[in-house]
Design a protein that fits this description.
The protein is mainly alpha-helical. 66% of the residues lie in helices and 0% in strands.
Length: 117
């Protein structure tokens, strides 16, 4: 019996996952950093945003090395905090991390240190 083959990787879908994850991270971080800036961003909306962000990260994780490669390409093209966050969340050992449980101050410090900000 032949071995089951992996599902095909669709680069345009992975690109959407990477772009959306980076964007949603930026929205989430800003909402947490400046909660009074957008009063409509209540806990329900934050929760929904996190679900979407986690889903995009999971899509990239499922693609394995191809997901990480595409996320790196996005960062090379747009070296911004959101893109770097996505790369970090795809590193070995980060697969069990959930965005809601992260220490945002430490994440911001990590991103700023890597981006030279």
């Amino acid at each position: 019996m032949p071995a089951a083959s992996a599902a095909p990787v669709l680069p345009h879908i992975l690109r959407q996952h990477a772009e959306q994850a980076a964007f949603l991270w930026t929205v989430y971080d800003r909402a947490r950093l400046f909660p009074d800036e957008n009063p409509e961003m209540d806990e329900l909306r934050i929760s929904r945003l996190l679900e979407r962000l986690e889903a995009h990260l999971d899509g990239l994780r499922l693609a394995g090395a191809e997901g990480t490669k595409l996320a790196q390409e996005r960062f090379n093209e747009f070296p911004e905090a959101g893109e770097l966050f996505v790369i970090r969340m795809l590193q070995p050992g980060a697969d069990k991390m959930r965005v809601a449980a992260l220490d945002l101050a430490k994440v911001r410090e990590y991103l700023a240190g890597r981006l030279g900000a």
